[in-house]
């Protein structure tokens, strides 16, 4: 009889322990943003939010005397209702404040700059999208990886070999592994366990013009998305795409700005380990001298076609991850920029109100005062009193209200 009572007590203890573990796992899981259908979910509720690009966070955070600029940017963003920061977790090759100076060799003070950016984002209640490499030459990019491959004796014809060469792909995977498993020196939390991070982004604006069929990029995304997921079960993965249509839906290619760069918005984002789709849009850069009305028409077509495809075909959330209007263009006025922002924000608000796929917009790009050397014509400085900044705050707070009010369908 005593043995039976002891066994019952043991089973009861085990049951209680398992229940506690299950509850702990559930609470932990709820802290991370997930994708469910066409919506982001946080703490069991739909999550809609606008944000900003600030590629410079790690670079500036490397110098302790400049870190106040990161803090100021996050503080300004919070005051304007912004909740997502997109930044780079890479800077490859020789040069100033590089993160990875050569394959597998990392600059610890630069990594600590990224640690600081993540810790400050947590402090201000922001989520961070972490991009892992650049398609273009800035800050190293795929060109640097290919050069590293060649230095190891690999025969690689073009920079597009980044997507196919086995040695180069292993270098990229090693970088991913290093970043995902990074122990934040400020918070003491490993990146893969930190809910401050919203998503791992495979590459900024992937392009592979040597293979317009899209097969090369498709294969690379499958391999790398699966690899990230094998390291980190907590976080979402996105590609970092501009949104150009490919051969899988040729009828959609009329929406492309005469670009055929080896990507396929629909096929690429249907890959099982990709959690949400992204779109970038720069009508003023893609279409030269077509006039303001044409740019607006093109923008509307671009927004609506991708939103329809995200909802009806891809069936995943859609984030407008880069957009802007260049104030250096001939004939520019701030009303044109406001019109663009309003067009994008209002579409997202309307979609979110119906539980649709448009989940937020992240403008390019946020600066603070004292960073004039990073001005590129697209900069937004939220401490200034402009009609654009007022619009950003109004629209972002409206979207935040939907997040607070929304219930799952």
Summarize the structure in words.
- With 409 residues, the protein is of the alpha/beta class.
- The chain has one domain (31-405): Glycosidases (TIM Barrel).
- It has twelve helices and 15 strands.
- It has helices at 2-30, 57-61, 67-79, 108-123, 141-151, 166-180, 215-231, 265-269, 283-286, 292-314, 334-353, 387-405; strands at residues 34-36, 39-42, 45-47, 51-53, 84-88, 100-102, 105-106, 127-131, 197-201, 236-238, 277-281, 318-323, 358-363, 366-367, 380-381.
- The chain has an eight-stranded parallel β-sheet, covered by helices on one side. The protein has a three-stranded antiparallel β-sheet with strand order 1-2-3.
- Helix 7 links the parallel strand 9 and strand 10.
- The longest helix is centred in the first third of the chain and has 29 residues, at 2-30.
- The radius of gyration is 22 Å and the shape is globular.
- It starts with a helix and ends with a helix.
- The model has no long low-confidence stretch (mean pLDDT 92).
Largest β sheet strand count, sense and barrel closure: 8 strands, parallel
Order of helices and strands: HEEEEHHEEEHEHHEHEHEHHEHEEEH
Poorly predicted tracts of residues: none
CATH architecture: Alpha-Beta Barrel
Structural class: alpha/beta
Mean pLDDT, nearest integer? 92
Residues in β-strands, percent = 5-15%
Lay out the secondary structure.
Elements: H1 2-30, E1 34-36, E2 39-42, E3 45-47, E4 51-53, H2 57-61, H3 67-79, E5 84-88, E6 100-102, E7 105-106, H4 108-123, E8 127-131, H5 141-151, H6 166-180, E9 197-201, H7 215-231, E10 236-238, H8 265-269, E11 277-281, H9 283-286, H10 292-314, E12 318-323, H11 334-353, E13 358-363, E14 366-367, E15 380-381, H12 387-405
Parallel strand pairs: 4-5, 4-13, 5-8, 8-9, 9-10, 11-12, 12-13, 14-15
Antiparallel strand pairs: 1-2, 2-3, 6-7
Helix pairs in contact: 3-4, 5-6, 6-7, 10-11, 11-12
């Amino acid at each position: 009889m005593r043995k039976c009572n002891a066994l019952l007590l043991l089973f009861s203890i085990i049951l209680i322990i398992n229940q506690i573990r299950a509850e702990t796992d559930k609470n932990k899981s709820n802290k991370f943003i997930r994708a469910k259908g066409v919506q982001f979910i946080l703490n069991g509720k739909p999550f809609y939010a606008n944000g900003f690009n600030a590629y410079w966070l790690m670079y500036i955070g490397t110098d302790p005397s400049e870190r106040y600029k990161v803090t100021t940017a996050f503080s300004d963003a919070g005051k304007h209702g912004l909740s997502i920061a997109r930044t780079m977790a890479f800077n490859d090759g020789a040069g100033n404040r590089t993160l990875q100076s050569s394959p597998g060799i990392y600059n610890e003070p630069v990594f600590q700059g990224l640690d600081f950016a993540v810790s400050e984002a947590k402090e201000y209640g922001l989520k961070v999208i972490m991009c892992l490499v650049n398609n273009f030459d800035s800050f190293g990019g795929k060109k640097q990886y290919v050069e590293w491959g060649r230095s190891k004796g690999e025969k690689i014809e073009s920079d597009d070999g980044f997507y196919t060469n086995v040695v180069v792909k292993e270098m990229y995977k090693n970088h991913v592994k290093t970043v995902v498993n990074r122990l934040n020196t400020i918070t003491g939390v490993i990146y893969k366990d930190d809910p401050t991070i919203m998503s791992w982004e495979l590459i900024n604006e992937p392009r592979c013009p040597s293979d317009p069929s899209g097969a090369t990029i498709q294969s690379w995304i499958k391999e790398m998305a699966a690899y990230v997921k094998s390291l980190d079960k907590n976080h979402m993965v996105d590609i970092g795409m501009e949104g150009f249509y490919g051969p899988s839906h040729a009828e959609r290619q009329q929406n492309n700005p005469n670009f055929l760069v080896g990507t396929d918005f629909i096929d690429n984002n249907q890959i099982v380990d990709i959690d949400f789709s992204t779109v970038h849009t720069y009508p003023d850069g893609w279409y030269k001298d077509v006039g303001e009305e044409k740019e607006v028409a093109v923008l509307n077509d671009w927004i609506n076609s991708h939103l329809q495809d995200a909802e009806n075909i891809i069936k995943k959330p859609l984030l407008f991850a880069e957009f802007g209007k260049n104030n250096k263009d001939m004939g520019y006025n701030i009303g044109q920029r406001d019109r663009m922002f309003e067009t994008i924000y209002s579409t997202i608000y309307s979609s979110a109100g119906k539980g649709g796929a448009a989940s937020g917009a992240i403008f390019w790009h946020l600066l603070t005062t004292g960073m004039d050397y990073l001005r590129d014509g697209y900069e937004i400085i939220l401490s200034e009193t402009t009609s654009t900044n007022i619009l950003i705050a109004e629209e972002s707070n409206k979207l935040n209200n939907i997040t607070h009010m929304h219930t799952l369908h």
